[in-house]
Fold these 2 entries.
Entry 1:
Amino acid sequence: MLNTKNKSDRFIYHFNPEETEITMQTKNLEVYYGKSLAMHNADIQFQKNTITALIGPSGSGKSTYLRSLNRMNDDIATVKGQILYQGVDINQPKIDVYEVRRRIGMVFQRPNPFAKSIYGNITFALERRGVHDKRVLDEVVEKTLKQAAVWDQVKDNLHKSAQSLSGGQAQRVCIARALAVEPDVLLLDEPASALDPVSTQQLEQTLRELKKDYTIIIVTHNMQQAARLSDYTVFFNLGEAIEYNKTRKIFTRPKIELTDDYVSGNFG
Amino acid sequence: MQDQKLAKQLMKKSKTARYERFGHLLSLSALLLIMAIVLGIIIFIATKGLSTFFRDNISFKDFFTGVIWNPGTKTPSGQQAVGALPMIVGSFLVTILAAIVSTPFAIGTAVYMTEISPKRGAKILQPVTELLVGIPSVVYGFIGLSVVVPFVRNTFGGSGFGILSGTFVLFVMILPTIVSMTVDSLKAVPKYYRQASLALGATKWQTIWKVVLRAATPGILTAIVFGMARAFGEALAVQMVIGNAALMPHNLVSPASTLTSVLTAGMGNTVMGSLQNDALWSLALVLLIMSLLFNLMVHFIGRRGAFKK
Amino acid sequence: MNRTQKQSQIAILLLRLIAALVVLILAFLIGYIFITGLPNVSWKFLTSPAKAFTAGGGIGVQLFNSIYLLILAMIISLPIALGASIYLSEYAKDNWFTSMIRTAIEILSSLPSVVVGLFGFLLFVVQFNYGFSIISGALTLTIFNLPLLTRNIEESLASVSDDQRQGGLGLGLSKYETIVHIVVPAALPGIISGVILCSGRVFGEAAALIYTAGQSAPALNFGDWNPFNIDSPLSPLRPAETLAVHIWKINSEGIMPDLTQVSSGSAAVLVLAILIFNLSARYIGRKIFEKMTSMN
C-alpha cells in the first residue's frame, strides 16, 4: 500500500459546533516576547469535559500557548488574536482578568504550596473573595481534597504547613486549591514532571476522574502520559500547532510526517 | 443570549481589580515619598548653602581658597573670613590617607578570606567584619580619644589631636567596609579563571595577583570609593580626635578640622539666617556635592567593570 | 624549589600576616570596649539618670530614649520601606523611571548622616517647629533608615520563588493580594533579619540626632505615661539625648569626674546591644523559617 500520509505541513481537527460543546477556542493567536514571535498558527478548539494534551519538544510553544489561555502571559508577553471562552473573547482589555483566571484555573510544573497550612492554602482565595463562613470553607476543603484524591492522607493534618508535604501530595493540594474557586477549565503545565512514577500514575487517575466536571488541558513532555491520559492531542513544533487530532490517531496514524517523527522518538 | 450574560459577567470590574489598583498606587506613593525626600534634601541644602554666595555676597574664590575661617569677622586683608580651604583640605587629607592605609590591609584580608583560607575566613573573619561594620561611630571616636590620641601624643609629641589621629580612627572604621565589599567582588570571579591559571602552571600567588585581583579590580575600586565616601562623610568619630581648629594643617599632628567636624561643632552656636550660619550650610553643601560625586564614581566604575555571566 | 614558587610562598605568608594583624586590631577593639567598659555596667548604671557635675551618674534616661526613638523610627519607616520595596521588586519595569528612583535611593543611602541630620533640623526642628524633640529625631532617623531598609526588604522579596507568585495569580488573585498575602509572608524571615540589622544601625546613630532629638535628657517622670505631659517618657515633644549622643556629648564637653567610666560603660552597652541585634537577626530569621516549613 502506498504511503497515504498527508504531505501538507499541518493538520488541525475541527469540531462541528452543532454537535459538540466547545469550551475554549483560539483564533489567530500570536504571542510575542518583546518583538520576537514565540507562537502562532494555533486555531484549536477544546471540547467540554475532555482532556487535551499539548505535546512537543521544549521551546515548541506549548507552554506559552497554555499560559495564554488564562492570560498568565499578560505581564511578560504581547498576545494578539482571539481567545474564546464559551464564545466570549477574553483577550480584550475590557475583560476582568481575575475573573477569567478564577474560571480557568491553573496548576504549575513545580508544586507551589503557599507558606500556609493545608487548610489555609485551599481557603485562601475564597477568603480573599469574601467567603468567611467556617462551615462553607470546611465543606470546600473536604470536597476539593477528595476530588484531588488526597483527603485520606491529609485529613488529620489539615493545619500543618503545606510546604512540609511530599511532592505528589503537595501537587494534589495545589489541584484542590485550584478547584476551590470553582473553575470550569483546568490548565496544567507539566504537573507531573517533578513527581515520581507512582505519584504520577495517581495524578493521572485523578485527572481522569476530574474530566467529568472540568475541561482539562495539560502540557506534557511525556508522550506515554499524553497517550494514556488524553482524548485529544496537539503537537507543537517551533511555535506552531502542527497537528491536532484524536489522541489515538496522533499516536497510531499521524497525518503529518513531523508528528510521526516526534511520537516515534526520532527527535525532541 | 447566554454569551452576552457571560460577557457581562466577565467585563464587570471585580473587587480584585480594585485591590490591584489600590495596592499599585499605595506602593508607588511610598516610593515617590522617598524620591521626594531625596529631592527635598538636595533642594533645601543647596538653597541654604548658596545663600552665602548670593545673599551674603561672598565670592566663590574667597570661600574655596581663603584660609581663615571665622565667619562674621574680617581677615587682616579686609575680606570676610569665610575661607573653607582648611576644612576642605582636612577632609580630603584624612579621607585619602585613611584609604591609602586601609587598602592594602583590606585587600590582603579579603584575599586571605577567599583564596587562602576560606574556611577560617567564613568562620571567624566574616562575622567579625560584619559586627565591626555595625559598630557606631561614636564608639570608634571614644576609642580614638582614649587610645589613639594618647598614643600619638606619646609617640609624635604635640597634643595628639590632629590629622594623624583622624586617619587612624578612619582607617579602622572603613576597613571592615572595604574588606566585605572586596570579598564580594573576589567571590564574583568565576572559579574557572583560577583553575585555568593553575592548570597553565602558574603558582597560587601568580594566580591571585595576575588573574583574580586583575579580574576583580573594578569591584575593589568600588569598595575603596565606598570606604572613602564613608570616611569623607563621617562626622563624630573624626570630630572627637582631630582637635577642631579651623586652621590649615601644618603637619599631621597639629590640631585641624574637617567639614563635618566644623559643622557638628558649630551649627548649635549660630543663629539661623546669619552669615555665620549660612557659611556652615555652605560647608554642608560641599559635603553633599562630594557625596554625589562619590556616587557618580561608583556608577562609572560599575558600568565599566560588571562581570558578564 | 624554583624562584616563582618561593616568591609565591613568601607572598602568601605576607597575606597571612596581614590577615592576622587585622584580626588582632579587631580583637583589640572589641576586647578594649568590653574589658574597660563592662566593669562599669551595673543595674544601677543602666537605670539611674545621668549626672552633670558629680560622679555616679547612669544612663537610664538615655537608654530609654534610644529604645523609644528606635521603636518610633521603625514604626514610621517600616510601612514606607515595605511599600517602596514592593513596588521596586514586583511592579517596577526596567526603564528610566525605575533607574532614576534606584539612583535616588542609592544617593540617600550614601549621604553622610550629618547631612541627613541637618536636613531634619531644617525641616522638622525649624520649619515644622517641632523643636529638639523625640518626633524630630524619629522622623530624621526614618529618613536615615529608609534606603537601607528598603533595599533589605527588596532583597528578601526577590528571593521568594516566582512559583509562589504564579500560584497566587493562577487563582485569580490580584498581584497586590498575592504580594501581601503570599510573597511577604514567605519573605518574612529575611524581612525580620533586615529590620533587626537596620535597628542596630539606627540604635547607634548619633550624628543625625544631635540637631534633631537634641543633646539634653531632662529627667523623666516614669510614673506618668500620658504622652501629652511634657515630662512623661512617652511625650513626643520633649528633647531626648540618646545613648550614642550621650557618649559624644560627654566626651566633647563633659566635666563629670567619672567621665571615662561613664563613656566606656556606655560604649560597652551600645556595642553589646549591636551584638545582640546582629546575633538575633540570624537566629530569629532562621527560627521563623523553620517554623513556617515544619510539620506544626
Note: Chain C is about 70% helix and 0% strand.
Entry 2:
Amino acid sequence: MSPENSLDSAGSAPPSSSVPGPAVAEIVLAQSRFENVREGYQALQWNEIEGASRYQVLDADGYSYYDGTLTEAFISGLPDGEHTFEIQAFSADNVLVGVTDQPAVIEVHHWPMSQAWASFAVGLVVFLAMIGLIIVGATRSSTPSQDASGSGADS
Amino acid sequence: MAGYVMLACFSVLWVSLGIWWGRRATSYDGFAVAGRNVGLALGTATAVATWITSNTTMLAPQFALQLGVWGAVAYSTASFGLFAFAPMSGRIRQLMPKGYTAVEFVRRRYGSMGSIPFLLISIFYAITWLISMSMAGGKLLEVLSGIPYPVGMTVVVVVCVTYTLFGGMYAVIGTDFIQSLIILIGLVVVAIAVLMQIDIADVHSKLETNRPMLLSVFFPAALMALFNNMLFGFGEIFHSNVWWSRAFAMREGVGPKAYALGGVLWLPVPIVAGFLGLAAPALGIGISHPDTVGPLVAATLLGTGGALLVFVVVFCSLASSIDSLLAATADLIVNDMVEPIAKAKRAGIKPDGHAMSDSAKRRASSFAIIFLGVLSWAVALPNVGTLATVLFFAGPMVGSCIWPIVGGLYFRRPSPLAAGAAMTIGTATGLWAYFAIGWFVASLVGAAVSGVVFALATWLAPAQFDFSTLADEAA
C-alpha cells in the first residue's frame, strides 16, 4: 500500500476528506445483493473507472474495509445481519471520480450452531477413533511374537 | 530487478546442489528411494520442507482471514497428520523393506478392488497439487517481486524438474535440507519483524469492533472446518506417495522420529502465517484475493527487504514441495502404471522375472518427471484461477483413504471389498457435501462415511491377510 493510500489510526478514511470531481462516474457492482451468506465472508467486484488510481469500500458507518488498486475486495468476519457497502473511486490526487449508485448488500446468516457442534462432534469421534486404531495397531504389531509370525494386529 | 537476481541465484543454487547430491543416484533404488539410507536430520528436514508448501504460506493466512482464529488453528492441525504418520512410517518400512510406493502397498494388500480407486485418487491429488503449486509459484513471485506470472511459473517448474531429473530422491532430500533451514529461519525473522511493527492489542480491538466473527469462539463455519482440515491433512499424508516414498527412503527406525520431529517443527508455522491474515484488516491493507494476504501483509509491513525475504521463503517452500511431488509421482507412474503394463505384455516371455530392468525403470522415471513438468506447466500457463480450487475436490477423496490405509497396515481382517467400498462411497458422499454444504465439511463427511462403510464391511465379510507376503519384492 502506498503512503498516500494509508488510513488513519481508526482504519477509516472518511469520504468527506475527498473533494468530489467534476464528473463522478457510477460504479456498477457485478452483483449487488448477496443473500444467505453462511460463512460471513464475501468478495465484491465492480467495473474499472477511468482515471481511478484506487478504490475504497466503506460500510454504512464509514469504516473502510478495502483500500487498494484492484476492482475486487474480499470482506470477512461479518456477524449475522444485513451489511451495506459503498464503493468509491479516487484519482491519483485523491479526487472522487466514481461512486456506487446502488450499494452492495450482504445478508449474513451463519450456519446454525447445532449444525456446527454436530460437525465438531463427528470430527472429534472420527479423530479419536483413528488415533485409537493407530495406537492399538502399533502397540500390538510391536509385540515380538506377532512380528515373528508376520501376522497383523488382530491375529 | 532484485527479484530476477534472486530468482537466478536460487535457480542456479538448487540445480547445482541437486546435480551434486544426485551423483549417487546411479541405480533405480538410489534414484527412487535414496538408497533407503536417509538419517534423522535429513529425514526430519525433508518432512518439514515438504509439508511447508505454497499452501502453508497462502492458505494458512487465507484461513485466518476467512475463519478467524479458528482458521489458523484449523490449519495448524495438519501437523497432527505428521504425528499420526510417525508410527505408521515405521510399520511401512518394516512390512515392505523393498517397497517403493503407496499404491504398491494397496495393490498387494487389497488387490485391484482397492488399488484402482486408490490409484485414481492418488494421481488426481498429485497432479492437481502440482498444478496448483506451479500456479501459486507464478502468482506469488508476481505479487512479491513483479516478475510476470508466466516467467516466474516457468522458472519454478523448470528448476525443479531439472534437479529432480538429475538427482532423483537424493537431490530432493538434499535440497530439502537446505530449503527447510532457509524456510524456518526466514519465517522466524518475518514473525519477529512483523510482531515488532504490530500492536497486538490494537489488532484485537479493531477486529472486535468491525470483524467480530474472526475472534469468535462460536464461529459456526470455523468450528465445522476444524476437524475437516485435520482430516484433509491426515488423508493427504496417509495416502500420498510423497510421504510413503520418504518412509521407504529412511533408515530403519528413523521414520517415526523424523516424522514426529517434523510435526513439532511445522506446528507453529501456520499460526505465524495465520496471524498475518488476521492483521491485514486491522492494518487497513486492502485484500482482493485472500490467497495472497500473507505475503502481501509481510511485504507491506517489512518493505523491500521483507518482500525479498518472503520471496526466498516462498521459493524454497515451493521448490521443496514441487520436487517431492515430481519424484514421488514419477515413482508411482513407473511402479504402478508402466511396470504392471510392461509386465502383463511380457508375461508369456518372462513369467517369473521382473518386467523392467533397473536402467529401464530409471529411464522411465526421467520421462515421467519431464511429462509431469510439461503437463503442470501447460495447465498452469493460462492462469485460470478456478483450477487451483480443484485441489479442494481432493479433500473428500483423500479423506476416504484414511481408514483403508490405517486398517490395512495394522489389521488382517479388512478386505478388498471394505477398502474399495470405503474409498468409493466416502468420496461420493464427501463430494456431495462439498457442493451441498461447503468445502469446510467435505473431508469430514468423506472420512466419517468411509469409516462407517469400512467398519461395517470388515465386520460383515472379514479377510485373513498374511502380512509376511508384503516383505517380498513386488510380485
Note: Chain A touches chain B through 57 residues (CB under 8 Å).
